[in-house]
Design brief:
Shape: elongated
Strand content: under 5%
Helix content: over 70%
Order of helices and strands: HHHH
């Protein structure tokens, strides 16, 4: 007798639904804790109270937090993403800026005939290695 006959398709689907609901719930709870602890406008005491509320009454705590601070979560996410993008852009400019200028100058010298192709390749390799 096959084992699958004791567990009908509806039971399998219900189990999958419950499993994914718990995964979703865990993701939301982690997200709420991350938002609580990265906030700069909330005191440490407030963070502790929200953490206790979410731990003691998880469903109610998370739902109340989402209802009260839903807009702030999105704004903090956007600010964090913009700050990260600005840092990345600044880093890329600082790394690529100097070597790109050196290579452009060397290319101008190569085009004017002041240096040979071998000298250009050497300058290019040196600029790329230092940058």
């Amino acid at each position: 007798m096959p084992l699958a006959s004791d567990y009908p398709l509806g039971g399998v689907l219900w189990t999958l639904l419950v499993f994914f609901a718990w995964v979703f719930w865990i993701m939301i709870a982690i997200r709420i804790f991350a938002d609580i602890f990265r906030r700069h406008d909330m005191s440490g005491f407030g963070k502790v109270l929200w953490s206790i509320f979410v731990i003691i009454a998880p469903f109610l705590g998370v739902f109340v937090y989402l209802l009260i601070y839903h807009q702030g979560i999105a704004e903090r996410d956007m600010a964090s993403a913009q700050a990260t993008q600005q840092q990345m852009d600044s880093y890329v400019r600082s790394v690529a800026g100097g070597s790109a200028e050196e290579i452009a100058k060397a290319k101008g010298l190569l085009d004017s005939g002041a240096i040979t192709q071998a000298e250009f390749d050497q300058i290019k390799a040196k600029a790329l290695a230092s940058g």
